[in-house]
Write a structure and sequence with these properties.
67% of the residues lie in helices and 0% in strands. It contains 14 helices and no strands.
Length: 280
């Protein structure tokens, strides 16, 4: 079951992406969506916010319509990706809430400031690293409109930029990035999925154990190597890691050997702490 109004609105937003945002002013199809969204907004603040965005888009002049369309589209897609409950006519519903806090959806940066950052994250021209670093220092990535582009940047061919996004920018953004990273993760042999997997672990994804099991049963060796490294953080996984030391893939065997060494050092460290405590 799904909220049909959101998917109807998605079609209209996609239409304007193609036709051009300048056609949004007084658009009858968008106007038709407003009463429905306002009605849903009586039960959940997220729909009220979405209705406000749509109304602003309908009233916008051509000069500002592209920014209004982008804001509305990103909020809509965020709701579609994270909304776990739907409403059904004539059935009492509990309050619906997305998996992000609307108060944290910072959009104070102008679109003109965001545009060069988006271009840096979606092109291959020179100087992109400097643009992204400067944007990070200025706090541009606090704006949720950059989140999808940051996630896409995890697969950038320029590894230094992808590393910077994974190790510096996304950790600074925190769990607000979680829904997008979770949605875009797939069990494929892609560098960006390895990066997403590491980030999901850092963000304490509750599905991590299931994900690891699926990865180990699959054929994505790069993900399996990362899974083994994560298993090494808990001594309870020692037996499983020992089994993986005989895996048919050399990279997995090497990761398992490293993990066993780490666990051994960890146990020795705990033993030494216990001895020192008894001596004192």
């Amino acid at each position: 079951m799904r909220i049909q109004a959101l998917y109807d609105l998605q079609q209209e937003i996609n239409r304007l992406y193609i036709a051009g945002s300048k056609f949004a002013k007084n658009d009858p199809r968008l106007t038709k969506q407003l009463p429905i969204l306002n009605k849903l907004g009586e039960k959940a603040p997220v729909f009220k916010k979405l209705a406000q965005n749509v109304e602003e888009l309908i009233q916008s002049e051509a000069a500002e319509s592209s920014e209004k369309l982008l804001n509305t589209g990103i909020l809509l897609y965020s709701v579609l990706y994270t909304q776990g409950e739907t409403t059904e006519e004539n059935v009492e519903q509990s309050e619906l809430n997305p998996s992000f806090n609307l108060n944290e959806l910072n959009t104070t940066v102008s679109f003109l400031e965001i545009k060069p950052v988006i271009e840096a994250l979606t092109s291959t021209r020179q100087g992109r690293m400097a643009v992204v670093e400067n944007a990070f220092k200025r706090g541009i990535f606090k704006d949720f409109r950059t989140f999808e582009y940051l996630d896409a940047g995890l697969g950038d061919k320029y590894s230094e930029l992808a590393n910077y996004i994974e190790e510096t920018i996304i950790p600074s953004v925190g769990k607000r990035m979680f829904p997008i990273i979770k949605k875009n993760f797939s069990y494929e042999v892609r560098t960006e999925d390895v990066r997403r997997f590491r980030l999901l672990y850092q963000m304490e994804d509750q599905d991590m154990n299931t994900m690891i099991k699926t990865i180990l049963e699959g054929s994505a060796v790069k993900l399996q190597v990362e899974a083994v490294k994560i298993l090494a953080n808990d001594v309870a996984n020692e037996e499983l890691i020992a089994q993986l030391a005989n895996d048919k893939h050399k990279a997995v065997r090497e990761a398992a050997s490293w993990a066993l060494d780490k666990l051994q050092q960890s146990k020795q460290g705990k033993f030494r702490k216990l001895i020192n405590k008894l001596i004192k």
